[in-house]
């Protein structure tokens, strides 16, 4: 997928390859990719940049940032817990179950 957008104007957008190799479903510019854990490293880099800059500390609690959102997360979970995967927060997505309703998802099947 290549997408070039300047000042809100799409200058170029083209998809390449297959969204689903098994069923030969091509990617489109609307294909949604299930990146799952692929972004964890980028998130950690951004968070550690905030720690370096003093905007956050490794001991900053998630609750102090979340307020009342996500009430099942314990009040004592810290940034360090989140970065080291020791927060005790369970997996909230079942990656084994994939929707098969959209031809633009990587799990798409043909609708013969």
Structural notes for this entry:
It is built from three helices and four strands; from the N terminus they run E-E-E-E-H-H-H. The longest helix has 13 residues, at 40-52. It has a two-stranded antiparallel sheet with strand order 1-2. The radius of gyration is 19 Å and the shape is extended. Residues 100-112 have low confidence and may be disordered. It has helices at residues 40-52, 62-66, 79-83; strands spanning 2-6, 9-14, 18-20, 25-26.
Task: Produce the secondary structure layout.
Blueprint: E1 2-6, E2 9-14, E3 18-20, E4 25-26, H1 40-52, H2 62-66, H3 79-83
Antiparallel strand pairs: 1-2, 3-4
How many helices? 3
Rg measurement, Å: 19 Å
The rough form would be described as extended
Largest sheet strand order: 1-2
Which H/E pattern describes the elements?
A: EEEEHHH
- First-to-last CA distance: 26 Å
The stretches of 5 or more residues where confidence is low (pLDDT under 50) are: 100-112
Q: Quick one: how many beta strands?
A: 4
Quick gist of this model?
The chain is α+β, with helices and mostly antiparallel strands and 112 residues long. Helix content is 21%, strand content 14%.
């Amino acid at each position: 997928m290549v997408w070039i957008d300047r000042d809100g104007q799409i200058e170029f957008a083209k998809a390449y390859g297959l969204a689903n190799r098994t069923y030969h479903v091509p990617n489109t510019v609307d294909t949604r990719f299930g990146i799952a854990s692929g972004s964890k490293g980028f998130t950690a880099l951004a968070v550690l940049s905030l720690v370096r800059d003093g905007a956050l500390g490794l001991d900053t609690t998630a609750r102090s940032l979340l307020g009342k959102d996500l009430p099942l997360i314990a009040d004592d979970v810290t940034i360090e817990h989140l970065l080291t995967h020791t927060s005790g927060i369970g997996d909230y997505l079942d990656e084994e179950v994939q929707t098969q309703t959209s031809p633009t998802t990587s799990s798409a099947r043909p609708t013969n």
